[in-house]
Structures are given as C-alpha cells and as structure tokens.
Amino acid sequence: MLIVSRTLALPETELTERFLRADGPGGQHVNRTESAVELRFDVARSPSLPEAVRARLLARRDRRLTDEGVLVIQARRFRDQARNREDARERLAELIRAALAAPKPRVATRPTRASQERRLAGKQQRGRLKQNRSRPWTHE
What we know:
Order of helices and strands: EEEEHEHH
Oligomer: single chain
CATH architecture: 2-Layer Sandwich
Structural class: alpha+beta
Strand content: 15-25%
Mean pLDDT: 86
Number of domains: 1
Distance between the termini: 87 Å
Helix content: 25-40%
Largest sheet: 3 strands, antiparallel
Number of strands: 5
CATH class: Alpha Beta
C-alpha cells in the first residue's frame, strides 16, 4: 500500500512496476541488471482517487501522462533497484499530494491609480525615445 496522505492510500493492485536496464554509471554490471523502474498508475480509472483529485491530475499538462490517463514515472537515479523503486513511489505520492490541495481561486483586482500612471509615463517615455530615433523633419 502506498500511503499518500492521512486520508488517501493507494493499494498495490493499482500500481504496475516494470524493471528495465538503466543507463549511467555501474560499469559492466549495468548491462546485466535491471535496476531502473517504470511505475504506472491509471489515474483515469483508479477507484481510490477522489473525483476532484483525479480531475486536477488529468488537467495537468504533464508529459508523463498518456492519452489514456495513465501516469508513467521512470526512476533511474540510483544504481540499485530497491532505491529506484522507492524513488518512483515517492515521486508518485508527491504528485498526488500536490493535486490534493485545491488551487486558491484568483480574486480579480483593479490596478491602482499610481500603477496606471507609472505605466502611462513609461509608454510616453518609450514613445519619445523612438521619436528621437527618427530623422529630423526639415522644410523643403
């Protein structure tokens, strides 16, 4: 069971792990061991996720999320499989924890008079600068 928070835990049956050969340091041994981990979690069909969390996870523009709604996390940071496995699980939990909190709604505010005046003064200054770059006007 992967414990995400006090209120949410994912059963092992919803996680799919695949082990593959990792690139990077390890010498000749790296060619024989499958130390990298690919962790898959079906966000779209998971019965454990609350609907609001599922919607927030699927709405993310994340390249690790497939078109079918499966989240794929690859862990190959460490040289041994157990540490990569823990790393992948912790990264999945962190991603779901981030989606647990509802984003604070933005409150629309009006710009202050001083900020509007600063903006207009800046535009006028920029206009004068560009005007000075033009050729002088002569009578012909």
